[in-house]
Fold each of these.
Amino acid sequence: MTNETVTTTTAAETPVPAPEPLPHGLGVSLPAADAGAKTEGTFPYAADLWAEGLLWAAVLRSPHPHARIVSIDTSHAREMPGVRAVITHEDVPGTPRHGRGTPDRPVFASEVVRHHGEPIAAVAADHPDTARMAAAAVIVEYEVLDPVIDPEQSFEAEPLHPDGNLIRHIPLQHGDPDATGEIVVEGQYRIGRADPAPIGAEAGLAVPRPDGGVELYLASTDPHTDRNTAAACYGLSLEQVKIVVTGVPGATADREDQGFQLPLGLLALKTGCPVKLTATREESFLGHAHRHPTLLRYRHHADAEGMLVKVEAQILLDAGAYADTSAESLAAAVSFACGPYVVPNAFIEGWAVRTNNPPSGHVRGEGAMQVCAAYEAQMDKLAKKLGIDPAEIRLRNALATGDVLPIGQTVTCPAPVAELLQAVRDFPLPALPKDTPEDEWLLPGGPEGAGEPGAVRRGVGYGLGMVHMLGAEGADEVSTATVKVHDGIATVLCAAVETGQGFTTLARQIVQETLGIDEVHVAPVDTDQPPAGPGCRGRHTWVSGGAVERAAKMVRTQLLQPLAHKFGMSTELLQITDGKITSYDGVLSTTVTEALDGKELWATAQCRPHPTEPLDADGQGDAFVGLAFCAIRAVVDVDIELGSVRVVELAVAQDVGRILNPAQLNARIEAGVTQGVGIALTENLRTPRGLIRHPDLTGYALPTALDAPDIRIVKLVEERDVVAPFGAKSVSAVPVVTSPAAIASAVRAATGRPVNRLPIRPQAAVVTGQ
């Protein structure tokens, strides 16, 4: 062993590097506050909740899509050991109907079942297995009826509901009905039924209160609406019902089915005990609303240069058994039926009808996604017939700010459609795969799945999409927020539910930017707070973010006024940067902490966008607050013998108004694009004769990380919308709307086949006679 001199350094002598400053304010990639808890598995989801004396609930659902209920016998279930309550329609003390948009759905079916999986009864027991066995022991005698499953038959069928089969009809008329073009193309298109398929199935806990009310712990995305519905159903006042929002495991639709929530509270009120219900995956598929299956017929007129002259279309939405939000979905479909193109003459007729299929409702991009697939197919047909490049014909007709939509509304927001399309068109194409065994995984189907490499064809296609932000047709969009500051810590109280869209992160950034305070907490959401509305269509970025900003600015004024008065200047001459308050002339310089000096400041503010109006009898009106646009170029490889499709790359350009959180924004776009891949290729909830087949995640094929293509965000246009807080736009829905149309366009380019149905079936991509 050799002698060595070992030098040690004490901790006191070790130079300590200065800590890196934390991300701060708007425009930076501030990490999500709940990221750690979610990755560590400690995030408080509803399925994890527990209470002393807990009972378990189960729901009996109809095995038939259409039947008359002859009798319901609950005696066997009530006599089972461990069963505490069995309830049916006779046990609903208040309003027996509910529904997101139109309250036309019974809490429990009483005389007729109108869809597969409709609730008949619910049970509370001391063990989940006991509850399920007791639910199965409820004897229901049915007179099975022939279901109406074709929406076209719904017009002539006997009424399926007291309100009739027609939910809404919109006959849009814009321009000259006699206008014609030199070139005419027609097409018929079908969009299948897609499910939001939340990874975390529905769960909830109901706890009775001493005042005779009940508290519901749910992953609700619209707690105040759900509270109002529950109170009406239970025959209670609003003050007696409270909803506490638990951790939401992501939402691309209305996260919680009200038909799931309502029996839970009824059981808690009847038993006087806490009651928990965790839905199985099958129950989740049977219970919540799906994307509207849609039949579309189109006729496009264009001149010899490819300029659009007139668009005629018929759009039929299958609403399923109940209306839900079908009226709003139809308005979006009809309004955007021509896409982000200048169309001087448009005649669009749309219907939403009831059938005995599973209910349809709000799913991200509703209405807009279905018509995008159809009008982009029509643009491809025009390009082929005229011998014009598909991107070029789209450029010639691209919508811009100042143009008029077919509903007669002038586009006043930024609409850089041509700029977006040019960006994806000019982006370099991906390299072709090598025809070697080691690169077989690049071919459609993956290893062992592809046919001969010589059967693979590459296609390039385009999609242009648009969506509306916030509600439409006169919806009162409003949100309220409170900002409190005490001991150098800011707290935000706002009932905007964090569904994965990043609102809590945005709220922290807004307060940091406005007040210069690093530590910002966002309080949990419950219905004791003022309402903020549902978490969809970018609402919370706009109205809830706007409310937080206004409240923070009011607190800022409270903070700065004493200093401004002391130095004889207005608060506008003071600025807050990195936690320091300085004046324009440098005379005043202090920290926010020193200025607070232990004071507690708070303010409450509202944000309400400018009003809109319903569409009139001709489908005309200023129906939308704002619009967002997206362009996508899809590159696909298709095995024309097997019909298998591999999405190689999706190049995305989007107008975002203003980038508030770069990492969060990119993640939302990539997620939306990937969701669109599923809609284009795999997601199809099959319902033969109205029965949901394979209601599980093996029968319903969601895209996984292995199915996600290369997603290239090639351009983000930051042209601020002057009427929106921060100028930002919704970013999640429009890539969902656009990517299925772009993928279908690319498959058409590769195969020469029409591809008029989504998801794309293998037989639609097979080319014979090669």
Note: The radius of gyration is 28 Å.
Amino acid sequence: MAQAHVLGLPRIGAQRELKFAVEAFWRGDVNEQSLQDTGRRIRAANRLAQREAGLDWITVGDFHWYDQVLSTLALVGGLPERFGAAPAALTLADYFAAARGNAQQSAMEMTKWFDTNYHYLVPEYSPQTRFGPGTQWLFDDVAEALAEGVKVKPVLLGPLSLLYLGKEKGGLADRLSLLPELLAQYERVLARLKAQGVTWVQIDEPILALDLPERWRDAFTPVYRRLALVAPSVLLATYFGDVSEHAALLAALPVAGVHVDGVRAPQQLDAFAAQWPQDKVLSAGVVDGRNVWRCDLTRVRALLMPLAQTLGDRLWVASSCSLMHCPVDLASEVRPDKEVRTWLAFAVQKLGEVALLRRSLDAAGFAMADVQAAFVADAAAQAARHTSARIHNRVVQKRLAALTDADTRRTSEYSVRARAQRAWLKLPALPTTTIGSFPQTAAIRTARADFKRRVMSHLDYLETMRAQIRLAIEKQEAYGLDVLVHGEAERNDMVEYFGDLLWGFMITEHGWVQSYGSRCVKPPVIYGDVYLPEPMTVTWSAYAQQLTDKPVKGMLTGPVTMLQWSFVRDDQPRELTALQIALALREEVAALEKAGVRVIQIDEPALREGLPLREGDWPSYLDWAVRAFRVCSSGVADDTQIHTHMCYSEFHDILPSIAALDADVISIETTRSDMELLGAFEAFEYPNEIGPGVYDIHSPRVPSQAEMEHLIEAALARIPAERLWVNPDCGLKTRDWAQVDGALTNMVAAANAVRERLAGTHVRVRAQAA
């Protein structure tokens, strides 16, 4: 009989308990024992949810205090040596210092986990990198589960993926040179798990879904031949894409089973099953681990039945990937749209879907009354969703049909626009600005919550938010910034805020997912055609502009980011949904311009994140992603300056598409990589203006003026001064005002100091010429 399991669960807790406990620990409000107690409760709840759903294997080891990559490094003693902690003596404080930085060291670099909105901490590998016995946390988690008498399946990030996802530093020529020493630690870990009584272990190697270099692919056989000598039965897990090109390799590996993603690439299930070895398990990931739509049980059962007939008890039914990318439990949702709610399944519900599908593959199981009832209810929900009158909007369809290529082009080229913008902006060299948001204080969050609960009147709420805007403008003028922002006090999240005001979106109450560390986001659900009923930001931005003679940026989230950071409808192509969002934003941009807001930032941090994992699929995606941005940004006059912002992704390989966006100014994250990205912009000869970040906002550490001057000078070595802006890496909502005051004061001082040196250089040049 087939088995049922999942690749992992959300680790934040049903009510974001981990977030609040970790942040309290960072503040010093609770001790480590209290934090550990919270972790134990979350892990116990996750195990209970799996048992109650009827899964055959209880997945453990998927709980992490900050990030799974960082936790794996801690387990094998591979944290960057610059943090100085001895691997065997690593504490939670050491662990968090690597994630967040400290007074002596900046935090580890952070980037996107494949094409998701989760951010992982990038390993640093140098000639000094050493591996050794690290934390005991995984073994403690396993012991907790074994004590409950269940079949335990620990999950561990694989050694090749751990190396591949890192960066070479300090002159290291080849990360693979570290593999022998790293494997010794994996052997130690796997042998100890086996000694604990573990019979199966899940080892994730998601890099197999990438365009993997041959030398990395060839490393799999010797690596797993070595690990097989000491490990329990290994289920090697792949996800996020088609790995059928590696089918022969995976079939020959000395592992007991392989997991493949049957949601992202359903066609590969048959390819694997056709010639799958008689001694290996095939785990079919058929319940979507990355979206919230309930599983079409009838359709998926039809997909699984041939596999069940071929494989028998060697078939495992599973989620496509870890459920960490889904909210925890739909049962927590009591107020959202009742109709749309019936179309959804969160992580706990997906556990039930996996178990139900496994039961349905057996004739006797499928005949059970509860299974039949579940299939009937699901069929009714699927039919109701597909026939709902709320899905389609005739006005949106008409506007889409009327779009032309002219709607994707500015009136003039950048050089003409730049002259028009400089004529009225009159900015100094190296103009300073921020990315948009300022600290979301407890008072701001309380006011928003009170207004939402109708405890605060609309007038009182308006005045509260206006007071916050006045504060933000006053502070920015005191810092000496050149282009200001209104601070976004009224916004809970850069996507959720807009989703709440657009038709075709639904906002959940507790649909939180982890973005990084303690940072959780609540992605909207896009269920129908997207339409803008009225302006969303004009009132706030126009008010801010009235308070100052300096230009104030209007702040919007771009169409691709709105798409990527939402749970997107799956009944039409993603590019069509992106274009609908772009049309709505085009109207918002026009309304801002009409209200006198002439600098408008359209953030697209998720542009690179949305890139398909295989390079052959890039051109189609980049074509529609760029088109969507240009649709929303091109309907303005030459002297209206369009900015965009991108962060925490690798942009080197898509610079032509970034240039094709034709934004007048792009701001990007570069602090954690020490301006590394600018080398690519220089080599590409990026044509427009650029603001590389000089302040890492994801760390509480306040950088000095000298550090920022160093980064500005490094940028000037690559970007001409007339095209260079100075700004933080990202928005400042997660920082407190004391940190912001210090950092932005230093940033402006650094820009002024470099300006003075530039002015002195120009004077000397003119004197020498004379």
Note: Residues 394-769 form a domain with the TIM Barrel fold (CATH 3.20.20.210).
